[in-house]
Give the backbone structure.
Amino acid sequence: MSHKRNSTKVDESTTYTLVDFFQRIPPGRQVQVTQAFKSLTYNRIEIKSPELQLYCDNCKGLRFFDGSYGTIPPIKFGEYYNIFFNYFCRNCEISHKIFAVRVHVRDKEICHIVKLGEIPSFGPPVPNHFLTLIGDDSHLFLSGRQCENQGFGIGACAYYRRIVDQQWQKLISEILRVSKGINADKEIITTLESSLSEHKFKRAVEIVKDAIPPVLLINGHNPITFLYSSTSRGIHELTDSECLEIATSIRTVLVELSIKIKQALSNKRELIEAMNKLNSKKKSKQ
Ligand SMILES: [Zn+2]
């Protein structure tokens, strides 16, 4: 159960709680955690399994999960322990999350801890319609996410930027489809149409920078302009963690945009259906 060897480096400048560790730290990154233990009798300590807020696939949202783990040998300072934590959604009691972690117990306050893996995989879920939207490039996205989850910022950035480079026309056509569907300003529609005849992303962005229906803005910003600025910036001089930040924001904007497109189109469909029902009721009364 216990091992003396340990190869990964720990960043001791930041200390996390066990909850932060489980919820926010991807597998493979060893961190320093405080208050991970509770005292038992006879000077013994035990590692906690705190309640977590995780995405439940079954309840379709963030829910509280309760956890436990099997029997481990009595904890001694300086030792390593490999532990499987089992978590269940408190709401549906169906969704299950497993963390395999290795804990190096320094003393009763501090331990160094790393996830050996987690199932389902780390990070927010990727909506299926997003993978359908990007079609053949979905394998690039999944590779990018793997890099991002393991903290490989340069790799993640390269994969996500490749998707944006290859998919910007598709994204603009989807924005055009929404604009037509929701009867956006005529000017927005003609501007989007003319940007699609451009072969260079830069030129297309200059054209569409003010032409986006407000329902597709992300925090008040045009997602296409954002994607362009994050892919046009040179990353050669940036550190891995700076690249990781860029990668995370590209991924967030891509997924968020696809969610907004889907919502706008389905709101439009619901509206048409409601109008049709209303009209047919009126007709039957006449
Ligand atoms: Zn649930």
Q: What stands out?
A: The longest strand covers residues 80-89. Residues 11-119 form one domain. The pocket of zinc ion is lined by residues 56, 58-59, 63, 89, 91-92, 95 (CB under 6 Å).
